[in-house]
Automatic annotation (TrEMBL):
PANTHER family registered for this protein in UniProt: AMINOPEPTIDASE (PTHR46112), XAA-PRO AMINOPEPTIDASE P-RELATED (PTHR46112:SF2)
Organism, as annotated: Microbacterium paludicola
This protein's name: M24 family metallopeptidase
InterPro entries: Creatin/AminoP/Spt16_N (IPR029149), Creatinase/aminopeptidase-like (IPR036005), Pept_M24 (IPR000994), Peptidase_M24B (IPR050659)
Domain Peptidase M24, first and last residues per copy: 134-317
Organism ancestry: Bacteria, Bacillati, Actinomycetota, Actinomycetes, Micrococcales
Entry-linked Pfam families: Peptidase_M24 (PF00557)
Amino acid sequence: MTPHPPGPTADRPLKLERIARLLDERGADRILLTQPENLAWLLDGARTSVPLGGPPVFSATVHRDGEVVVTAPANEADRLAAEEVSGAAIRVVDWFADLTTPGVLRDTDVVEELRAARASLLPIERERYAALGRDAAGAMTAVLREARPETTERQLAAALAAAVIAAGAEPAVLLVAGAERGGVQHPLPTDAPLGGRAMAVLTARRHGLNASLSRWVSFRDPEPDAQRAIREVEADVFAATRPGRPLQDVLADIRAAYARHGFGEDGWLRHHQGGPAGYLGRDPKVAPGAAGAVHAGQAFAWNPWAPGAKVEDTVVADDGGIEVLTVDPGWPTTDVRGLARPVDLDLS
């Protein structure tokens, strides 16, 4: 049976209101969306590409009155109408035709404004994100419980990919570091065995939303002191991630946290620290000069890192504090300033 896309969610009118305000501020009557994060956001999580991580195969023009017109090539239009896009007219063009419209305000002209429009999660988005977080964390637990020291990094990554796809999501990031590669910031899987202690990193995408988490499993090597210290860095980061604070102030607190917990003044320079999340894995990575502030109800994926130590989950920053989305009750945790945080899964 061919799946049919559900109708527009209750979030869609609120998104269109945000776009209308942007158009008013820019004095424009319509905007052309071409970027995957904007298309997936507006169209309720539609899958925008054919190759995983590839460019969108359609565009969408949003008019001030809320009309949405999707432009799609002839070889994609029927599938999009049947399976991905609802609540929009579809304009069909030749498969080789340009999907853009000259002389129209484009999403690439208003990157920061649209990033702000996407920032605060709406009710359906938040429900979907929480469900994705649970599924991603559950997949991680199930796969790592079956891992052994002789399992290779590639084998573990393949099992994670299968679990994520079985959950109706897509693996956007799959990293694995065995005992010999714990000092690699982005450990793309190799044929090396996991050895005494290993880390797995996953970003799962569903309904356009990205849920990221990192977990460690110990077979022989105990959790190092650095892992406990990096959780304290993360606790400082969570405390700094308060609605209304400029991202630059949050980054300043991150820098200080590394020094405070024994990683040196330059500890924060050894790896990117993550940042806001949602329809991109990082939206954006917070770096010196990054614009914007923390929004209430905004998702974040911070990833404090040191050689052999990392902690990462996808969370939401609310006025009342941090809610962790990537949670599986089967994973062991410890209390860090009132929040349950993951420790090594001990399979020794």
